[in-house]
Amino acid sequence: MSAILTATVVIGIVGVIVGIALVYIGNKFHVEVDQREVEVREALPGNNCGACGYAGCDAMAAAIAAGEASAAACPIGGAPVAERINAIMGTSAEADRQTAFVHCNGSCEHTSTKNNYVGVRDCRAVALSGMYPWDCDYGCLGFGSCAEVCPQGAIHVTNGVAAVDREACVGCGLCVKACPKGLIELVPYEQKTFVRCVNKDRGKDVKLVCTVGCIGCRLCARDCEAEAITVDKNLAKINYELCTNCGKCAEKCPQTAITSG
User: Fold this and answer.
1) Which residue range forms the structural domain that includes residue 68?
2) Whole-model pTM above 0.90?
3) Cα separation of 105 and 138, whole Å?
4) 107, 171: one domain
5) What is the mean pLDDT of each run of 10 residues along the chain (261 residues)?
6) Could you tell me which of 138, 204, 172, 185 has the C-alpha nearest to residue 64?
7) Burial of 40 (0-12, 13-18, 19+ CB in 10 A)
8) Distance between CA 123 and CA 51 in Å, rounded?
């Protein structure tokens, strides 16, 4: 009986020691979980499709909670999910909202055809081939790879150039990744003034390939009272944080390369 009692006592003591050790280890390596991350994860569709650019919904929820991703970054959930996430994060839907913008206005009437491309009707395939169909090597290829990946149907190609329906766009950024020419940018929804060109060639060379391309004349920068425009490598660039959307730069641009409103 004494042996059994001794064994029982020993097992009990060992159990207590192990329990104390487990509590200590648990407390030492405990990772605080942001409750907002949990709630954001619950608000996401749960497809784990990776369309947002993250490994899955868990990774995206963590990024949103950390302020590294937009509340509207889920292309599957769209506006309803973004609205719920904004409520969780305590952010404003309008302040957070972004929309895609295509920095090209070189439609069929503004540039000419250089090559008769025959092949896969995909911008990425065309870019790999180097057989750009238009005189301007910087412009939109017009085969609609951006439109194909847009889950909201917010992009359409008209006269050879992609255009975004800003009201339908949820700012997921899939089109940005799909464009091989880097023409698409996510911009604040409230922004109304843009440079619709990315051609960095000299002005005289730009005029040879597009009638509405930026020629780097600097008239826009000189007339911008907010000092929101700079010209670098023959191309005007707008600082959206400084821009007041007054539209004076668009009025002064001799090439109508800047649009406002």
Assistant:
1) 35-96
2) no
3) 11
4) yes
5) 65 72 63 80 86 85 86 81 88 75 92 83 90 91 94 92 93 90 94 96 95 96 95 96 96 96 83
6) 172
7) buried
8) 19
